[in-house]
Design goal:
This protein is mainly alpha-helical and about 550 residues long. The protein is built from 26 helices and six strands.
């Protein structure tokens, strides 16, 4: 009776799964800037407007609707279903709904990751690995469709791990039959669907490696049969991915985009992570343990883990946007490696305090795991989501819970001045172009925005030439009949425009300046509303600091 009563009391307490669910929320609002972090990229704005266009027209767009520089150009809205979801949430609750969905996607992703890691290690070790993975992944936490891809990656990984363990069915349906169906949904949510196909193929390649390298001839036949099933599933997933509004043309477009050298050279999220970044220590930790795991698993004939860690480790080093992918495939193998070390430490010839500490940890972790197996009501997770939602929807939310694009980073105050101008053809950088779509579409169209795959490298090179004040920047602007330029004070082009006799400052609020051509401005300088002292402002725009370079680099894409 007493045992039953204690188990009832435990049901009210948070489980380790609850802690995994709440970890992204704590990290987002405790260490990062909360909603401001998720909305640190205004690509969210054009995704919402795209979803609204789809709902209004009952079509998925095939040609551009946002720009005056490439009007009617062929456009692949490859996150169209995510865009519709974002638009629906924005229509009901504004950006708060989009932010809340993004938080739930992150929490679901890392809860699923914990459940996978728990099958390879003690739940305490699995939870630590999950928290490290979440912290490292935070470099790419944005309210954008790629969050759906992160969730699908871990769901595919979990299903494939169950198949490898011999649990081939979910109910009566084989997992390998479910994955192609899931691919259809994934393909229409985000272009990262090819990662799922690659994951399935990697499991097949792991079986081939085992077949080729094992000394046991009798094991080669079963390995070949397993490899064939994985490869058949990968082929089915590839075929399923053709079920999208653009059919095979989407795949051709994606391949061309990924092969284009422009993105790795100019778009910041395609750059390697700076190891001065606050989250770099978590990435370094997981990367180091992943490297050790490659050899540890290979020695035990577990070539799938080694292959996954090698491939995704390389991708994470090449581009910061790939770091979350490595974290999702590395956390479970790394947790298994660490658990094996912890289990063996008490028997090794080490300092007594080390063996004693390891033995104590193992004892506490074992008791915690036993208690954690008692079913819970997950009230802590529900309470955490409820508190976040209450703060997001509060009439005057705290700063980190304000679902808005930061007015200190985007030209929020300049919008009113732009709205008073008759049909301006505005040049600005791609991030502010996203913001203009968010605030001014359909009355105003943009020169460029965050859809670098749509504009193409030839156009983007011209765009960066203008921002970098290359010798023919005025000719490029003239070729597009640009009559209005919107820029921050520290942009290199801002200094050149102030020196030019062809442009006049008509607005300045300290965050954004609006320049108009002499013809449009009437040859007169309109008084700017900025009331600052002006000290140092003209000099700063001509300084060649590291920040100036970032002005010519796009921060975000798809």
């Amino acid at each position: 009776m007493e045992n039953r009563g204690s188990q009832f009391a435990i049901k009210w307490l948070p489980s380790l799964g609850d802690l995994a669910f709440l970890a992204p929320i704590w990290f987002l609002f405790g260490r990062l800037q909360g909603a401001t972090t998720l909305l640190g990229d205004c690509d969210t704005g054009w995704h919402i407007r795209t979803g609204e266009w789809i709902v209004t027209n009952h079509l998925v767009p095939t040609h551009d609707v946002f720009s005056f520089s490439k009007p009617g150009g062929v456009w692949f809205a490859w996150e169209w279903l995510s865009d519709v979801i974002f638009a629906g949430l924005n229509g009901m609750w504004g950006l708060r709904g989009v932010v809340l969905l993004s938080i739930l996607l992150l929490s679901a992703t890392f809860t699923a990751l914990f459940l996978v890691a728990r099958r390879k290690a003690n739940p305490v070790t699995a939870l630590v690995a999950t928290i490290v993975a979440a912290a490292a992944s935070s470099v790419h936490w944005l309210a954008r469709p790629h969050l759906f891809s992160l969730l699908f990656v871990i769901l595919f990984y979990a299903a494939l791990e169950r198949v490898r363990e011999g649990r081939t069915r979910w109910g009566r349906v084989p997992y390998l039959a479910l994955l192609p169906v899931a691919t259809i949904l994934w393909t229409n949510l985000h272009g990262g669907f090819f990662v799922g196909i690659a994951l399935v193929g990697a499991y097949g390649a792991g079986e081939l490696a085992q077949m080729a390298l094992t000394a046991n001839r009798e094991a080669r036949g079963p390995a070949w049969q397993r490899a064939k099933r994985y490869f058949a599933c990968a082929g089915a997933c590839l075929a399923a991915s053709l079920v999208n509004p653009y059919t095979y043309r989407l795949h051709v477009h994606l391949v061309e985009y990924l092969r284009d050298p422009y993105a790795p050279q100019h778009i910041m999220e395609f750059f390697s992570l700076s190891f001065h970044h606050p989250s770099a220590i978590f990435f370094e930790t997981m990367l180091l343990l992943s490297a050790v795991s490659v050899f540890w698993y290979a020695r035990r004939g577990r070539y799938t883990e080694s292959l996954l860690l090698l491939v995704f480790g390389h991708l994470a080093l090449v581009a910061a946007r790939n770091i979350p992918l490595l974290m999702l495939v590395a956390a479970a193998p790394v947790a298994g490696l660490v658990q094996a070390w912890l289990n063996g430490l008490p028997e090794l010839e080490l300092a007594q305090w080390v063996r004693r500490a390891a033995a104590k940890y193992n004892q506490v972790a074992a008791r915690t795991a036993e208690t954690d197996r008692i079913p819970r009501w997950h009230l802590m997770s529900a309470l955490g989501v409820a508190m976040v939602a209450a703060l997001l929807f509060a009439p005057a939310p705290p700063k980190r819970f304000r679902a808005e694009f930061d007015p200190q980073s985007y030209p929020a105050k300049a919008i009113e001045a732009l709205q008073r101008m008759p049909q301006p053809r505005i040049f600005t950088d791609d991030q502010w172009g996203d913001y203009l779509i968010w605030r001014l579409y359909p009355s105003h169209k943009v020169f460029v925005d965050g859809r670098s795959d749509f504009y193409g490298s030839a156009f983007e090179e011209k765009y960066t030439d203008v921002l970098s004040v290359k010798y023919d920047w005025e000719r490029i602007l003239s070729g597009f009949d640009v009559d209005t330029i919107l820029l921050p004070p520290d942009a290199p082009l801002t200094g050149a425009l102030k020196e030019s006799s062809r442009w006049r400052v008509v607005y300045d609020d300290g965050v954004a300046l609006i320049f108009r051509s002499i013809e449009k401005a009437g040859g007169k300088t309109i008084s700017a509303p900025y009331q600052g002292s002006g000290a140092g402002r003209d000099r700063e725009v001509t300084k060649t600091q590291a920040r100036d370079q970032a002005i010519t680099e796009k921060k975000t894409k798809t």
